[in-house]
TrEMBL record:
GO process terms (BP): DNA integration
Gene3D superfamilies, per database record: 1.10.150.130
Keyword Nucleus included in the entry's annotation: no
Membrane-spanning segments: none
Segments forming domain Integrase SAM-like N-terminal: 32-87
Molecular function via GO: DNA binding
Keyword Phosphoprotein in record: no
Organism: Dolosigranulum savutiense
UniProt keyword annotations, A-Z: DNA-binding
Name listed for the protein in its UniProt record: Phage integrase SAM-like domain-containing protein
């Protein structure tokens, strides 16, 4: 969904949450991760952040393609761990993997909030350790 203004996006978000509360939206156990991302998370996220922040996040969404065709309800801890390990193998930095994992946690947080998941599997697995850079000064 594309919104022309932030106000328009916020109004859509409020309507969506109200409809869910009234039972107009029902939990769909066959919903794929991609469908949830496209129909719920991205419009919600887009309504909460500035355009520049949203644009900077696009590459992180692409990193989530690992889960794209999986049913939201079928994603388990081993899947998340395998996804993290695949990014390590690619040679991505711990800090970048951490930021993408945080995005995954936000996605699952919304699914839990909307009653589509009972728990956040990304939080269960946990994020990767932060890399601390050490500066060594000349002797």
């Amino acid at each position: 969904m594309d919104f022309k203004t932030q106000k328009e996006a916020q109004e859509w978000r409020l309507r969506m949450l109200a409809d869910f509360g009234k039972g107009s939206i029902t939990v769909n156990s066959t919903m794929t991760f991609k469908k949830f991302l496209d129909d719920y998370f991205i419009p919600d996220y887009k309504s909460q952040v500035r355009k520049r922040t949203f644009d900077m996040t696009q590459s992180k969404f692409k990193r989530l393609s690992f889960f794209e065709n999986m049913k939201l309800s079928d994603i388990q801890a081993p899947h998340v761990k395998k996804w993290q390990n695949a990014m390590f193998i690619e040679g991505l930095s711990n800090n970048y993997i951490r930021s993408v994992h945080q995005m995954l946690q936000q996605i699952f947080d919304l699914a839990v909030k909307l009653g589509m998941l009972s728990n956040n599997v990304a939080k269960t697995v946990g994020n990767v350790k932060k890399t601390v850079l050490k500066l060594i000064f000349g002797r």
